[in-house]
Write a structure and sequence with these properties.
- By secondary structure, the protein is mainly alpha-helical.
- Strands 1-2 form a two-stranded antiparallel ribbon.
- Helix 1 packs antiparallel against helix 4 and helix 14 runs antiparallel to helix 15.
- The longest helix has 49 residues.
- It starts with a helix and ends with a helix.
- 50% of the residues are buried.
Length: 619
């Protein structure tokens, strides 16, 4: 049954992408059916796991022997346990809601069938990634997600910006993928095994240096897929794809893959303090960098993209804390999947009502024209900034508490990130739904159809009750304990201090955002006379400029130098040898004139030369 989880959306993708125009009329419904069926299968497998004792909650399916070369044996096997099943439910559940939403969002697109085929392919690849029982098979799903993201981000390929964004995402992710491939090779050299169970078993006997190298390589992979510093630049440009793609990539699938990889490989990171420290540093930098970028974005989707960078940074940081934070990284990943998907779908609904305008400076006062979108987006807003009892409060506050328990500086970074998050999300909420209308002439905002608002309502319910359900009803810590270990016990005294402090910081950030963007008129054109920090945030913290200066330009110079060396030195050497041989041959051919007298004279001359040499030798 586990294979059906991958097989259903994969079959949907194959049928829609290979079936041609014959599937145009019903292809989108079929894609929804395949994704929803996978969700149903996931629920049945989740129930099956619930019926087992905690230590035996896993289902393994060996399909066939994939690679068998000497001592290198890799099975094609699937493994469902407490960690992978929560990803399965998130991917198929939220993914199916995004499929349904897309029926309305892509209703008038002539390439709708192809779009839904790519969505199914994306879901299938992500499911393979989280269900694989070894790192090499995980790598197949990892690359499948990269391919599907390229196809979806550049879906509007007639737009140069979308085509460039797709290529950028593909190239940057390949940099991270080098890390995963190197990690897998190091695992084979070190452990002679690439299965999860084999690596975990042999890690105890490996050297610290080997574990650190593997951990750093895995971190590089996570940075690429989860858009963490310094490989974050592709994520903001990825907004060129249709809005449902943004929701799928940012909430349920691609950017969560790096968090899954680090938590799944916890046996490596548990034994390497250096690798864990690197994870924490990368997470802290990214959570602040993403929040900083979000403070100055007028594009509603890019503002949410900066938010995703920041929230994934929280998860990566938590995973770097080791056993103290693994469970909270996954907890926040699950709540984030609900409220961030709702926020992106809400942004798409706003765009739908505003004739695809993404500039929030052209919004304002939409709460009256789009009541459902306003309410659902508002609930997601309260969840992401961490207002109790909404979902983000329960998960993000756990990360903040765990961070302070390990390191004061790291804890302060998470606290500052919470305040900045409250500011930029309040800015987004105020510019979109409050204040006076700044609509362009001829634009008439209207609510989206039921096929789009229904998924938004369901996700809004998750934004309200998801955290409570996971913490108390599902007891996420107890559920994940057999896979990721036991989280450290909490200090009630410090918790009693941190919760009010965090809420105070959040309210201060939200209050400042409200005063600046709801109580003060927002100009329709962004002012140019702004501070250096604002210019930096608008320019994505100069990430592209840095990549161009450090990697692209030197790469171009290196390429030109290699081309010159190849054409002048390599080709010159080869050409020179050829010309020399050709010249000598031409001259030697002149001696072959066919005259016997010439040949006889040559022989006599040779004999005289030999006689002279012998005479000189004897003397």
């Amino acid at each position: 049954m586990i294979s059906a989880l991958i097989g259903l959306p994969l079959f949907g993708a194959a049928l829609l992408l290979l079936g041609g125009r014959r599937t145009n009329a019903w292809g989108h419904y079929f894609a929804v059916a395949m994704s929803s069926s996978a969700f149903v299968v996931g629920v049945t497998q989740f129930i099956a796991l619930l019926g087992k004792p905690a230590e035996e909650r896993h289902i393994h399916q060996h399909l066939f022997d994939w690679i068998s070369v000497g001592s290198f044996n890799v099975p094609f096997g699937l493994h469902l346990d407490q960690l992978s099943v929560v990803f399965v439910l998130l991917i198929t559940g939220v993914g199916s809601l995004i499929h349904v939403y897309s029926i309305g969002y892509m209703a008038h697109d002539e390439n709708r069938r192809r779009f839904f085929g790519y969505l199914n392919l994306f879901v299938a690849a992500m499911l393979l990634l989280v269900l694989a029982d070894n790192y090499l098979l995980l790598y197949v799903g990892w690359e499948g997600v990269g391919l599907a993201s390229y196809l979806l981000i550049s879906f509007y390929q007639h737009k140069p910006s979308a085509a460039v964004a797709g290529k950028k995402a593909f190239v940057v992710n390949r940099v991270g993928d080098v890390g995963l491939s190197v990690a897998i090779m190091l695992m084979f050299v070190t452990f002679k095994d690439v299965t999860f169970s084999g690596v975990s078993e042999h890690a105890q006997h490996a050297s610290g240096q080997s574990l650190t190298l593997i951990g750093l390589a895995l971190l590089l992979a996570a940075c690429g897929k989860s858009a963490q510093f310094p490989l974050q630049s592709w994520l903001l440009d990825a907004m060129e794809g249709p809005t449902p793609v943004s929701a799928l990539i940012h909430a349920a699938t691609m950017v969560t893959a790096g968090v899954y990889l680090i938590v799944r490989a916890h046996a490596i990171f548990d034994l390497s303090e250096t690798a864990r420290t690197a994870v924490v540093v990368i997470g802290a930098i990214t959570l602040l960098l993403g929040a900083f970028i979000g403070t100055a974005k007028d594009d509603i989707k890019k503002g949410l993209a900066g938010s995703t960078m920041s929230q994934i940074g929280y998860m990566i940081l938590a995973a770097g804390l080791g056993p103290v934070g693994y469970v909270f990284a996954i907890f926040h990943l699950l709540t984030h999947g609900m409220f961030k998907a709702g926020l992106f779908l809400g942004a798409g609904s706003v765009m739908h009502g505003m004739e695809d305008d993404v500039n929030m400076r052209n919004y304002g006062a939409l709460r009256g024209a789009m009541k459902i979108t306003y309410i659902t987006f508002g609930l997601g807003f309260l969840a992401i900034i961490g207002i109790p009892p909404f979902a983000g409060f329960w998960s993000k506050d756990e990360i903040i508490h765990a961070a302070f328990s390990q390191n004061l500086v790291v804890g302060l970074a998470t606290l500052l990130g919470a305040g900045v998050t409250a500011f930029y999300m309040t800015r987004m909420m105020a510019m979109t739904f409050f204040g006076e209308s700044r609509w362009k002439k001829g634009v008439h905002p209207h609510e989206s159809p039921l096929v789009m608002t229904a998924p938004m309502i369901i996700l809004a319910i998750g934004s309200v009750f998801g955290g409570l359900a996971l913490k108390f009803l599902g007891d996420i810590e107890l559920w994940l304990e057999p896979v990721v270990g036991v989280a450290a016990p909490k200090d009630p005294a410090s918790n009693a201090v941190l919760i009010p402090v965090t809420l105070t910081v959040v309210l201060l950030g939200a209050g400042y955002g409200w005063l600046k963007y709801a109580k003060t008129p927002v100009p329709s054109v962004a002012p140019e006379n702004v501070s250096l920090l604002t210019r930096a945030a608008r320019a994505d913290a100069y990430g592209d400029a840095l990549n161009e200066a450090v990697f692209m330009r030197p790469g171009q110079y290196l390429t030109r130098a290699l081309v010159w060396f190849d054409s002048r030195a390599v080709d010159g050497l080869v050409g020179g040898v050829g010309a020399t041989v050709g010249g000598l041959s031409a001259r030697l051919r002149r001696t072959q004139n066919g005259l016997v007298r010439s040949y006889a004279l040559t022989m006599v001359g040779g004999a005289v030369l030999i006689a002279l040499v012998l005479l000189l030798v004897r003397l």
